[in-house]
Amino acid sequence: MQKAMNISYEIGNKLYLNITNKCPCSCTFCIRNNGDGAYGSDPLWLEHQPNEEEVIANLKTRDLNSYEEIIFCGYGEPTCELDILLAAARYIRSVSKTPIRLNTNGLGDLINKRDIAHDFSGLVDTISISLNAPTAEEYNAVTRPSFKDVNCFEEMLSFAKSVQKEVPNVMLTVVDIIGEDEIKRSQAVADKAGIHLRVRPYED
Question: In whole angstroms, what is the distance from residue 108 CA to residue 82 CA?
């Protein structure tokens, strides 16, 4: 396992922010299982957990206005370091009009032991939430969350519905490798929740 302090990395015309390696899930399809980086990036395993100052210092080395979108998405769940996430988003907002997106597993309420949806109001433009499967049983089998005696599937959907009131664009996502039947059933779950479903390609 190669480690570095790649707090930000570029894919195309988008900037991705890798603010933590912590995650309460161990998804069967997670790209962390396949290597040290994503989509040709340098290693995303962090040498240590960066603090707020380190993340903002890294952002100051980037021309934030030159990107199509700035996305909190790395080798960890961004809401595991919610204070850093929010501080970084506030900094970006203070210097740039570039849209901000959060990619999340949707378990931030459980991680932070409180409702966090309102925290993103006025800061984040888009939140993409991993649905992963159409039922709680299938979700647990694929996502393998560390939280026990909690219906993580329902917690994730509850967060999605709550944050939809705070953020302009909210979507649920599944990877295309789950199969057509599961995608159709996932679409039904998203339709019932009133949230757009995005089927995203799996990357080795």
Answer: 8
Please provide the average confidence, as pLDDT, over all residues in the chain.
91
pLDDT value of residue 111: 98
Q: Is the pLDDT score of 41 beyond 70?
A: no
Angle in degrees, CA 99, 104, 108, rounded to 5: 115
Any idea where the domains of the chain sit in the sequence? 3-200
60-69 CB burial, b ≥16 within 10 A, e <16: eebebeebee
In contact, 155 and 163? CB cutoff 8 Å? no
pLDDT of residue 166: 97
Amino acid identity at 95: V
Q: What is the pLDDT of residues 126-166, one digit of tens each?
A: 999 999 899 999 999 999 999 989 999 999 999 999 999 99
Query: Which three-class secondary structure state does DSSP give residue 58?
Result: helix
Q: Are 199 and 173 in contact (CB under 8 A)?
A: yes
| β-sheet bridge partners, residue 31 | none
Q: Which residues contact 132 (CB under 8 A, 6 or more apart)?
A: 27, 139, 142, 143, 174, 175, 178
> Would the pTM count as exceeding 0.85?
yes
Which one of 3.40.50.720, 3.30.1300.10, 3.90.25.10, 3.20.20.70 gives the CATH number of domain 3-200? 3.20.20.70
- For residue 34, what pLDDT is reported? 56
